[in-house]
Amino acid sequence: MKKTYSMELAGRTLSVDIGRVAAQANGAALMHYGDTVVLSTATASEKPREGIDFFPLSVEFEEKMYSVGKIPGGFNKREGKASENAVLTARVIDRPMRPLFPKDYRNDVTLNNMVMSVDPECRPELLAMLGSAIATSISDIPFCGPCATTQIGMVNGEFVVNPSQADWDNGDLQLTVASTSEKVIMIEAGANEIKEEKMIEAIYMAHEINQTIIEFINKMVAEIGKPKHEYTSCAVPEEMFAAMREIVTPEEMEEAVFTDVKQVREENIRVITEKLEEAFAENEEWLAVLGEAVYQYQKKTVRKMILKDHKRPDGRAITQIRPLAAEVDLIPRVHGSAMFTRGQTQICTITTLAPLSEVQKVDGLDENITSKRYMHHYNFPSYSVGETKPSRGPGRREIGHGALAEKALVPVLPSEEEFPYAIRTVSETFESNGSTSQASICASTMSLMAAGVPIKKPVAGISCGLVTGETDDDYIVLTDIQGLEDFFGDMDFKVAGTHDGITAIQMDIKIHGLTRPIVEEAIARTREARLYILDEVMKPAIAEPRAQVGKYAPKIISMQIDPQKIGDVVGQRGKTINAIIEQTGVKIDITDDGSVSICGTDADMMNRAAELIRIIVTDFEAGQVLTGKVVSIKEFGAFIEFAPGKEGMVHISKISKERINRVEDVLTLGDKVTVVCLGKDKMGRISFSMKDVK
């Protein structure tokens, strides 16, 4: 049955075609918003995947280049590996939806979003978020939805609902909020130092709009939604928990997890697991779910300790941050380095500077962004958590963490005019036990300052956790969660910013939403912790950006020339500019507007290159004194090259104050001479004199 539903959303019509395409998927929605079209599908396997203790959800965001009238770049000429934007979009869809599937569901589920047409006024990412929720809600896949997503931008101090791509890219706020009919379930934000109260206002503006979308989805579900299918539950039997408590008492489990040393806790749990394996050796059914059962037992123990006893596994107070340390310049020869340590979380960030020609080129659906000047990369090797596995390159988590830190730092970076460099920061995770992404923001801020990048203000980040009880007002917010509290808790609320406001937020939860008091408390708590880190930890390590880039960093001279003279500097087939580069060893970049960047490590050679360019683009007048090299000798005089591709002639009568019969009597090829410009001769050539130099 084909049916079309529509609603007005932020001044445009959102239209959803059901039953028109992809009928064999469990659920499918062909989404239209303006001229943007996204096909969202939800499919599930018939049986659970064996041997796993997690819900196998896959989310895809496929950027088809035909949607913006492009043929993909490269030799292959077809879409390949998912772009960074596609990965980040898939994560933003995954994070709010995953907690709404049953916790004991082990069937494979894939949410696929194919971008087929892009209208710059209607971002396809938003359509994919809504389409995934609609396709899943109307399908027979078990799902405690619906949920909805709204994006808020800010232009000239005013909020914009579901902004155009241009307003999203150039505004002061990029906020994405997902909600159920009752609560906020996901927040993702990048901001230009937005005040906390303003951010909360924007979050709940989005939440209110989400309610209208949920009503729209509920109407579809009521009319054409499929009955949810039954599934094989992977829940741990209650009688097994009872037997476990007889073998390992709650007091013993509490003692096992109550330590601030991760390795000690893991060893304690290993011993407990072996004890239970021995006890249940005859019960194959229980042995099959023992790992999940031990996890659940730990979880219940930790949550009870925190919520009822206000005891954290490492003994800290609820608002207490783990021991902090910061240092700079620990890696020699790199352009900038810094390390930030919080408990057993340790990040070292290295900064590398390069000329603007080294910016990252972006081939995607956003026509406003074709390059990235600042790149933040985050690495998470297995040794950081005491494990062993080969490195296979960054996964989606690493890409997400790097993008979050990048988003947090972009608002404080200097402009290209102020600092004409491409900038790359790489955060290496040395040790991990909670919120490495926020530690990487702190380390990166210090590394940038150590490299001499004149950032406007330092940025720090911190994460808050949450443990909830049976009612909405039975909860506790934890400052600076460690890995165990993240693992067994209900929330990871990361906030980064300066003294003056928020620059990034990422909120993940495992429950069906947060009340407004929890959101407000988490934002207030992270601000308090952020200011402490900025003032008491980072500032003593490095208080402000260094006045100059480091010894091993490239230096850059910027100059402006008449765009009409670019051809003179470049020369035929690049002959002139290549000659300058060969003479001086520098790197030269010229843009179409006449901006010239000269990059090198030898200041004298850089100045020489700048002088040569100035000579080439200058219209010489009589009286100017220059130094050049004899490159050709004729009977009537000598030709002097005073810059690559620029020559003038000294007539034989202007070489010496005494009369000479032959030019060779005074000059030989390669001689360096000083000349004064006499203007242009009848043939339009620059004419020089050696004898009239004063």
From TrEMBL:
**One GO MF term attached to the UniProt entry:** RNA binding
Give the UniProt subcellular location, in the record's own words.
Cytoplasm
Q: Write the Enzyme Commission number(s) for this entry.
A: 2.7.7.8
Cofactors that this protein relies on = Mg(2+)
**What cellular component GO annotations does this protein have?**
cytosol
List, for all copies, the residue spans of the domain called S1 motif: 623-691
Keyword vocabulary terms for this entry: Cytoplasm, Magnesium, Metal-binding, Nucleotidyltransferase, RNA-binding, Transferase
Is Magnesium tagged as a keyword?
yes
What processes in GO biological process is this protein linked to? mRNA catabolic process; RNA processing
The catalytic activity, as recorded, is: RNA(n+1) + phosphate = RNA(n) + a ribonucleoside 5'-diphosphate
Residues binding Mg(2+):
486, 492
**Presence of the UniProt keyword Transferase in the record:** yes
**What does it do?**
Involved in mRNA degradation. Catalyzes the phosphorolysis of single-stranded polyribonucleotides processively in the 3'- to 5'-direction.
- Tell me which family the UniProt entry assigns to this protein: Belongs to the polyribonucleotide nucleotidyltransferase family.
Q: What is this protein called?
A: Polyribonucleotide nucleotidyltransferase
